[in-house]
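In response to reviewer comment 3 from the previous cycle, which asked for concrete evidence that the modeling workflow produces usable outputs, we include below a single protein chain processed end to end. The sequence was submitted unchanged, and the resulting structure tokens are shown without manual editing.
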Amino acid sequence: MKLASLLCGALPRLVTRLGTLFTCALLAASCGGIGEGSSPNSSGNNPPNMACSSDCGTVFVAITDADGDFLSYTVDVVSLKLERANGTTVETLPASTRIDFAQYVDLTEFLTAATVPNGNYVAATLRLDYSSAEITVEQNGAPVAAKAVDDNGAPLAVVDVKVTLDNRHHLVVAPGRPSLFTLDFNLAATNAVDLTTSPATVIVTPALVASLELVDQKDLRVRGPLVDVDTASGTYVVDVRPFHGRSERFGRVEVHTDSATAFEVNGTSYSGSAGLDAMDAAGPGIATVALGTLTTATREFHATQVFAGTSVPGAGIDTVMGEVLARSGDELTVRGGTVVRNSDGARFARGRVKVLLGPDTKVVKGGSSPATVVDTDAISVGQHILAFGAATPVSSTQMSGDWTLDATAGRVRMNPTPIYGFVKSTSEGGVTLQLDSIGGRRVSAFDFTGTGMAPEQDADPANYEVATGALDLSGLHEGEPAKFIGFPTPFGAAPPDFDARTLVDFPRMGATLSMSWGRQGTLAPFSSQEEGSLVLNLDNEDIGRLHFMRIGPRWVDITTLPASPSIVPPEDGRSAYLVVLRDGSKAFHEFGDFVEELGKQLDGSKAMVAFTATGGYDGHNNVFTARSIVAVLK
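The workflow returned the following structure tokens.
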């Protein structure tokens, strides 16, 4: 997962999984927050304001998560400290907060706003508490519990993860334009799942990839109760209350809207100024969630979608979020979803959640502005939903047990759903896939009974028919992976099985390259090590279990390639690289500086244990372009 940050100067971000990412963003604005050397306020309220002048800046912290194998990864974030060159530290979190990193796949969520004194910051330390962690992985299509342990097999408790910035890129906090600082807690590189144990175990070696820029551009989310609305300027202000917090106050942020912003307030859809008027009429204190982007030049948050009042999960109404795994009549089955109750907040449910529909259930289909009202038959197997109603646990074990959500007098929001598969054939306006996953869940988890106009026409994952309309299919080739985003065909109306709105073909698909060398590591991981490229040594006898490249749903054994790929930096855009050492990690912005540091460390006294790169792969030229790399040494 990732943390991203912006200060009056700057701040943070984080990553999980065999490819999960958590991002935290901080943004500087005005004063009022946390003093130097202070600790988080465990009461959940804002800490006392400092006597703040031009010596301070406000920090906004946000979090996201990339696609991964974890269904849930819930830990407590206790502290996030910045360190000056003289060793003094500044705490940036006003309170500890519990986060399920796995729920933030394509989003960055603002976490906090905190006052940070001006200065030159050279390091950051994130403190995580795994004592009551709740981690779920998928095994044979079913959610199973996993336990976090260190590399000696001992259960994890409190873990401090420190990263030091390279000498050319310190974080400078000064009056004026906010600057940006990001921290990636890369679980892709530092988590290994063992499903042979009971419970499953996750071996964790945490590390932070630090950057002064956002390496990945994603939608941002800001959540919290409304403070006020300025209809003249098209803006509103919220008290930041991240994730599904119920009483915490983590500072304030201003949200900008325009005529294209889509609103849903208390279940009713609006566009532009009409949405702001509806929020203003609802009054201060109503729950809000905004999705949008950060303008780099101005550091302003611009919303494309805004939800307010009971349109926010858990705000006055219970909510279930997840993929529909099966449908029978007016009963939907969600398993491995999130239940957010108005009475007691959010939890991940490993059991089955039955969602009950009725003739009075209101269904809206997102992905357009405003959302479209449809009937309940529009909800089919594979659809990602937010269902609003009354949630009741079927058993006393709320996390592992079953739930029922009665939405007969409630509503359901259908969100665009991503699918992965391998191309079997193409035709004008359509593609047939060997379906691999829906919404990050393996296809084995889904029961497609009843999706077709007749039983013999039920969706078949081996021949999954996708309607593509006017999408350009020229980049698709038989046997190659592809990603589509859209909506499953209404229940009982297939074929086709899926209506695609967006296509990501093989050349544009993100890739992860991973190599390990066993517990003892290797002294010679590379066959070539130059300022502009690295080449892993595939003839090394110490290569361990991990030696693959993952491109969407495709897994490639690197050792079977004709030659080892050249690993190079991007020609433009942002990048971040990390060398993980026992006594702390070192972060770099420039590929050449990263390679130079590896040369210094690999002097015969240290061994490389693991190497993970994320970016894109050009199979024609056998080149892997790495925007992020984590190299673990011992």
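The first helix runs from residue 187 to 190. We consider this sufficient to address the reviewer's concern, and the full set will be provided in the supplementary archive.
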